[in-house]
Each structure stands twice: as structure tokens, then as C-alpha cells.
Amino acid sequence: MRRRRLLAALLALPLAALARAAEDAPRWEALTDAERRVLARLRGRWDALPPERRRRLLAGARRWLRMSPAERARARRQLARWRRLPPERRRLIRERFRRLRRLPPEERRRLLHRYRWYRSLPPERRRELRRRWRELPPERRRALRRGARHGRRPAGHR
Hints:
- The chain has helices at 2-24, 33-38, 51-66, 69-84, 87-102, 105-120, 123-135, 138-149.
- It is an all-alpha fold and 158 residues long.
- The protein has a domain at 10-84.
- The protein is extended, with a radius of gyration of 23 Å.
- The chain starts with a helix and ends in a 9-residue tail after the last helix.
- The relative contact order is 0.04.
- The model has no long low-confidence stretch (mean pLDDT 86).
């Protein structure tokens, strides 16, 4: 008898998880009017999308609705620029993003801090740094990358 109850409980767990996933990823009719407007192109297939995809799309729609008109204009420009990229370049960017997401939080913060520092430099200084980087022998670049992974700061970065 105990085994049957245990087996029934174990079999019910996946069903409970599926029910929870369905709650977190609402059906089309449960969306607000504003959310439906943002997601209108998905109307005919929304309910057939996997729950995780619906959750991500809904989160994006909600972010969009919170944006100011200036932020939306910027997002449209970025999307247009993304669409103009060759497929191979988009694949490379996606892979780098996945690698960034897999980094430990402290390493990710350190890397983003360095990126912001780099972006804050005047364009001519960034060009100079890129030129110097390209001129380095491959083994020196690898050594610098390894050092960056271990928390060492690049020269001139404070």
C-alpha cells in the first residue's frame, strides 16, 4: 500500500510541474489587451508555443510596455541593425552571449565592468587598442585572455 502511494506521488510530480508551467505561460485569452497588441503577430500560434517560449515572449512584451518612446526607438534601431548582420555574425554573437551567461556571477560582473570601461574610451583610443591587439602574436593574446579570466587588470585599466 505504501509503495502504491509513493508511486502515485512520484507520477503526480511531472503533472504538477506541467500544470505550473501552464500557469506561468498564460493562454492568449489571459493576456492583457496591451500584451496582445505587442504579441499580435503570434496570435494564431501562441497557445501552441512551448510554455518556456511563451514566458520569454511575455516577459519581453512586458519590458517593451514599460519602455519610454525613446527606449523603444533605440530598441527598433538595434533590432534593424541585428537583422542586417550576416547569419554567421549573428551565430557568433549568440554563442558569445551564451558563454557570458555561463560565467560565474563575479567573473561576469568583472567582464561587463571592463566592457563598459572600454566603451567609455574615446573612439580614437578604442581604435588604437584594437590595432595593438591585432598586432599581438596569438600566444600573447591567449596569455592576456587567460590573465583576464583570473582577475588581472589590463594595462591602463583602473
